[in-house]
Each structure stands twice: as C-alpha cells, then as structure tokens.
Amino acid sequence: MRLIRYAVLAVIAICLLVIALANRGEVTLNLLPGELLQFWPFANSVTVPLYAVIFAGIAMGVLLGFVWEWVREHKHRAEASRAKKEAAKLQREIKKVQKADGTTADDVLAIVDGTR
C-alpha cells in the first residue's frame, strides 16, 4: 500500500513539474484597474511566473473547499458531541445505580444486564 501511495505522489509531482516547466513565462498581475491607481498608495502590480499563478489558484480553491466543508459539517460535529455527552451522562447514572458488588439495585437494569 505504501508503494502505491509513493507511486501516486511521484506521478503527481512529475505532472506538477511538467506544468511548471511548460508555463515559465512571466505575467503581470494587477490589483486594481488603471483608473483607480491614483487613489491607491501601494504598488498594484507584480510580475510572477504563470505556473505560480496556476498553483496559487489551485491551492486557494482547495483551501476554500476545506473551509466550506468544515462549516457545512458543523451540525454533524455538534450532534456527535451532544450524543457523546449524553452517553457519558447515562454511563455515570448506571454506575451510580449499581451496587458495590456489581449487582444493580434497579430491577429493570438487572433484567437488562442479565444478573437476575
């Protein structure tokens, strides 16, 4: 299984390297359109290789997807937390009802446990 994982990672790395080598051309990214430059005190353009723009876009998309899923699954995590707390509370109640010798003082619990 480890060999398959390394093979897949190697193929991905080779593909990314080929993309980077094929897109080495410089591109200029502008933060604002030319008309708004008079109101902007900082540099509004940067020159970077095209592959950096492509990889940054992919990374931002993956990051946005992770955050979106994390927010979307909040209700499931909250429900699991509530269920875990409820189970712990019920376990504490069962231990409180049980006697020191392991038998239960409650007839219903004794029937469920099979001690009677």
What does this structure look like?
Keywords: Cell membrane, Coiled coil, Membrane, Transmembrane, Transmembrane helix. Residues 23-94 form the Lipopolysaccharide assembly protein A domain. It holds the Pfam family LapA_dom. Residues 71-100 form a coiled coil. The protein has 116 residues and is mainly alpha-helical. Strands 1-2 form a two-stranded antiparallel ribbon. It starts with a helix and ends with a helix. It contains four helices and two strands; from the N terminus they run αββααα. The protein has two domains: 2-72, no CATH class; 86-116, no CATH class. Helices cover 65% and strands 9% of the residues. The longest helix has 24 residues, at 74-97. The chain has helices at 2-22, 50-72, 74-97, 107-113, and strands spanning 26-30, 45-49.
Fill in the keyword field for this structure.
single chain; 116 residues; 2 domains; 65% helix; elongated
Briefly say what this structure is:
The chain is mainly alpha-helical and 116 residues long. The protein has helices at 2-22, 50-72, 74-97, 107-113; strands at 26-30, 45-49. The two termini are 50 Å apart.
Count, helices: 4
What is the total number of structural domains? 2
H-E order: HEEHHH
Shape call: elongated
Structural class: mainly alpha
Write down how many β-strands occur, each being a DSSP E stretch of 2 or more residues. 2
How much is the radius of gyration in Å? 30 Å
Would you tell me the overall average pLDDT?
85
DSSP helix fraction = 55-70%
Q: Uncertain regions: pLDDT < 50 for 5+ in a row? A: none
InterPro entries: LapA_dom
Pfam families: LapA_dom (PF06305)
Keywords: Cell membrane, Coiled coil, Membrane, Transmembrane, Transmembrane helix
